[in-house]
Each structure stands twice: as structure tokens, then as C-alpha cells.
Amino acid sequence: MELKVVNTKGKETAKAVNLAETIFGIEPNDHAIYLDVKQILARKRQGTSKSKERAEISGSTRKIKKQKGTGTARAGSIKSGVFRGGGRIFGPRPRNYDFKLNKKVKQLARKSALAYKAKENAILVVEEITFDAPKTKDFNTILANLNLTFEKVLFVTNGDNSNVHLSAKNIIGAKVVSAENLNTYDILNANKVVISEGSFETINNILN
User: Fold this and answer.
1) Which residues lie within the region annotated Disordered (predicted)?
2) What is the layout of strands, in order, in the sheet containing 12-18?
3) Which of 66, 113, 124, 202 could serve as a FRET partner for 91 with CA atoms 20 to 30 Å apart?
């Protein structure tokens, strides 16, 4: 597949980029995508939920009633989870939700996500975007020129361009990542993926 390169004014240039069939033309693997997105979201969880169990509750340790003859269930402690004010039974504890995922599965997931976007014609190739200083207004102008003002857009840059990243930080729906940090969730979460011309070499090196 070949895509024309557009400039920041939204005009097509004489240049074109060939999308590698080994990445953008594969048959997407939905299960690989599911596993990778699940891991990405799991890593974002703080895992700090905590509730007190019966051993951590303050209260009397006396036996609250005799063992037999009451006609009700036996009870040994007021701190039991069956009583009001007692501890939580099997409550949450701090934990890490991350799990291991093979590198090749993560590669396949990113390839599959990019292949879906290619099939949907949701990939746009632009010339390299550079700012001398963070300028939200200039970034908004580029979005308007590309007719992406009201879209959820993922910009993929070649290298870590901090000025471009900061320019998009306050714009709802826009996100900037470097080609090295491209992940499956960000690709699928965007309506349009805008890839800079110089990013394709990095993407090919990482995913092939």
C-alpha cells in the first residue's frame, strides 16, 4: 500500500511512503490485541485498594455468647465479618496486576492494530512536525489543516520531540508519542493515526 505524504498545511506533496506488507498488510490477530491491551491497562492500575479483615479490627476478643443452646449459629468474636462493624471477608489487598506477555505477542498485537487502521484508511502520513517552542495554537492550526479538529488523533513522531508533545498536551483528543513508544492501546483508541514520514524506519525496525 502506498500513501501520499502531506505537509502541515494539509496539501499533498510529491513524496509517497510504501506501507510494509509485513506490518500493515497482515491478517490481524484479535487475541494478541486482547492480551496486549489487557496488559497495558493492568499496568495502569494502582493496586492500592485495601480493607481491614477481622485480624486488623479493633474490638473485644471475648466470646459473645455461649457455644450451644441459643438456637442460632455459633459465634466466637464480634470482629467476625458477619457482624456489623466486623472485618471484611476476603477483602482487597495491595497487589500488582501486571502479568508476563511474550515480546513476539506484543509485536503481533501492534502489527494487527496498525493493519486494522490501514484497512479502515485511518492512517495519514505527514512531513516531520517540529516546533521551536511549545505552541498549542500552532498545533491546533495543524489539526485544522488536516481536518482533524474534532477527532481522536494519535501523532507518531520520529524521536522524542518534547515541544510537539507539550503543544498537544492540553488538546482534548490529541496525543503525541514517539515511534519507539507506540503501543496497541493508543493505536486502537484513536480514530486517526498520523505518522510522520521519518517514523516508518523506526516502526519497521521494531516490528520486523
Assistant:
1) 45-77
2) 12-18, 2-6, 123-126, 192-196, 153-157, 174-178
3) 66
